[in-house]
Amino acid sequence: MSSHSNNQPWYKNGMVWLAFSPAIAGVLTGLTLLVVGSINYDGTVNENYYKEGRGINQSFEQDRVAERKGLKASLSFAQGQLNMVLVGDLAPFPDQLVVLMENPTRSSLDFSVPVQHLGSGRYLGNLPQKVNYDWDVKLYGPQKEWRLYGRGHFPLQQPLDLLPSKR
């Protein structure tokens, strides 16, 4: 009887690699997901989600006030500036308003643009950054008594209209 002893090191045995391959694949997949998740972090869920959910009735009231006053705005973006024309039953027009630019998927990209009244419902403001892709645009009254809303894909080819939401 002859005995055949295998003097190969363990790492040269194909059966060992076959046995370890699911574990190795799992570790590589986990590391890949960790890196992708870290790079594409989009923030946490708003901690005040319950409070915001309860405040939805206030949002409806803001829309109704804007509709009663016949408010609408038209925004155009050119050369780093935001030009806005606001029409409706406002007497007098507020000296300053704030346009909120909200990214639908990443709250960390949200920003606001203060706009100054130039006269006759015309407003002008400077954009702090270049705007690309989809954005939700909101305009509130000075005491947040009314709200206008619009959604646009930037860069815009035509002016963006902000209107009271129809819910």
What does this 3D model show about the protein?
This is Nitrogen fixation protein FixH. It holds the Pfam family FixH. Keywords: Membrane, Transmembrane, Transmembrane helix. The chain has 3 helices and 8 strands; from the N terminus they run H-H-H-E-E-E-E-E-E-E-E. The chain has 167 residues and is an alpha+beta fold. The protein has 2 domains: 29 residues; 92 residues, Immunoglobulin-like, CATH 2.60.40. The protein has an 8-stranded antiparallel beta sheet. A hairpin with an 8-residue loop joins strand 3 and strand 4. The radius of gyration is 28 Å and the shape is elongated. The mean pLDDT is 86.
Q: How many independent structural domains?
A: 2
Distance between the termini: 89 Å
Q: Report the major sheet.
A: 8 strands, antiparallel
What is the arithmetic mean of pLDDT?
A: 86
Specify the helix fraction band: 25-40%
Q: Please name the CATH topology of the largest domain.
A: Immunoglobulin-like
Give the second-level CATH assignment, the architecture of the largest domain.
Sandwich
Q: Which spans of ≥5 residues are poorly predicted at pLDDT below 50?
A: none
Task: Give me the Rg, rounded.
Answer: 28 Å
Q: How large a portion of the residues is in β-strands, by DSSP E? A: 25-35%
CATH class annotation of the largest domain: Mainly Beta
Task: Please count the helical segments.
Answer: 3
* Pattern of helices and strands: HHHEEEEEEEE
